[in-house]
């Protein structure tokens, strides 16, 4: 895949419907991009990919590098990746996600109907992440899984990387509309799906606007084949927003 | 692009919002597939692509082959194409679109969450097609354009080709959920977007299930950039269903 195109495996509504027993082998996933996020079999933790390295961030607060060779048995029931080449890099401080959103909109004024790939490097404060504990039974939907998630607020400012995507409103149910970001600290020992965060001072924000979106649907997965995929948009916003 | 993948340019909600002054050059479009449908600049008529040949079917009931060389100035503001290699071919008769839908569902029992590319060859009866007359002003939305469409029912049975796609429900607003089909007669002199049709006897139906969907969004098109794209799903079903 060319640079700055989104490759997406499955659709977020399938996670809402609990389709997470199978997935795309991570060796296949990283062949489509070096920057991304997603989840693992049975929604056990949060996936982040940066500089081509893939990490699993679990609800027990451990972070593990994941083997992405063809020998790996790790799979992604849902993921989005890109071969990230930022077109704009700037420094800014922001108090919360809304302020970050405004910075990105200032730098990409014509982006509302497009995707953005986003990376932020620096020191963050008040960062609250969640890590899904995983399904308590196969087929459990993301809303229920979300009720068992662990959330954690870093008491001290923490240096690390934020990896994410902004997806346009009209993709809701297929992608996660709005900003969807995962955090991993500099030591690659803690992280998760960002619920809220801000900065004290400037951080480095880099991003690229994306107009090509490739969706691969799960084949040979009876759970996906039978799923209703009705797209509980409000639910997705609650659990992934 | 590999065989039996959908390449789509723009999203159907953009047509609903009247984004049709620009588009993908048809030379680019046919590089992604040999089978498909779409529309032209200002929604002037219906596009059908079969065996790599592209035709414009207008509301004055003329059909014109369109130059797809790089020299062509024809563009598609919206189109879906595939490099079609049917995986199932069968013969059947059907009284209406609903009965055709049932035949396809019988042959592709696990297809509800996937795309189908469809081609039908034979003699059709009671076929009613519409051909959009085009925008009366730039930016006019598809619903209004639809009010000025010409529809035509063939009085006699007519031999020809039907080219289309079935798109899953969750794509509504981006694609056209359900069966979306265009007809062109054997002589390539008449045709349009199918509103209703049936057969007297058996026709040849070929199709392929598709799990890879590539969406290219219009860049450098201020109309797309500014469009609301709120996705009037009921409206799309009325005007494109």
TrEMBL record, chains A, B:
Enzyme Commission (EC) number: 4.1.1.5
Keyword Kinase: no
Pathway: Polyol metabolism; (R,R)-butane-2,3-diol biosynthesis; (R,R)-butane-2,3-diol from pyruvate: step 2/3
UniProt GO BP: acetoin biosynthetic process
Gene3D superfamilies linked: Hypothetical protein, similar to alpha- acetolactate decarboxylase, domain 2
Family the entry assigns: Belongs to the alpha-acetolactate decarboxylase family.
Record SUPFAM superfamilies: AF0104/ALDC/Ptd012-like (SSF117856)
Name recorded for this polypeptide: Alpha-acetolactate decarboxylase
Organism expressing this protein natively: Stachybotrys elegans
Keywords per UniProt: Acetoin biosynthesis, Decarboxylase, Lyase
Regions crossing the membrane: none
Cited PANTHER family: ALPHA-ACETOLACTATE DECARBOXYLASE (PTHR35524)
InterPro entries: Acetolactate_a_deCO2ase
């Amino acid at each position: 895949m060319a640079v700055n195109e989104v490759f997406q495996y499955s659709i977020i509504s399938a996670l809402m419907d609990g389709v997470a027993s199978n997935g795309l082998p991570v060796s296949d996933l990283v062949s489509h991009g070096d920057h991304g996020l997603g989840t693992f079999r049975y929604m056990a933790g949060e996936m982040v990919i940066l500089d081509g390295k893939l990490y699993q961030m679990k609800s027990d607060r451990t972070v593990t590098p994941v083997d992405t060779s063809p020998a790996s048995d790790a799979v992604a029931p849902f993921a989005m990746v890109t071969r990230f080449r930022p077109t704009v890099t700037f420094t800014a401080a922001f108090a919360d996600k809304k302020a970050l959103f405004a910075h990105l909109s200032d730098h990409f004024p014509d982006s509302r109907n497009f995707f953005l790939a986003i990376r932020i490097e620096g020191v963050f404060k008040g960062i609250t992440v969640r890590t899904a504990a995983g399904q308590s039974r196969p087929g459990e939907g993301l809303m229920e899984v979300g009720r068992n998630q662990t959330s954690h607020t870093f008491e001290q400012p923490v240096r690390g990387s934020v990896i994410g995507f902004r997806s346009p409103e009209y993709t809701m149910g297929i992608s996660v509309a709005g900003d969807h970001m995962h955090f991993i600290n500099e030591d690659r020992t803690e992280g998760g799906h960002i619920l809220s965060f801000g900065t004290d001072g400037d951080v480095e924000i880099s991003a690229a606007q994306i107009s090509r979106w490739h969706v691969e649907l799960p084949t040979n997965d009876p759970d996906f084949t039978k799923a209703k995929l009705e797209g509980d948009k409000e639910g997705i916003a609650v659990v992934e927003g």
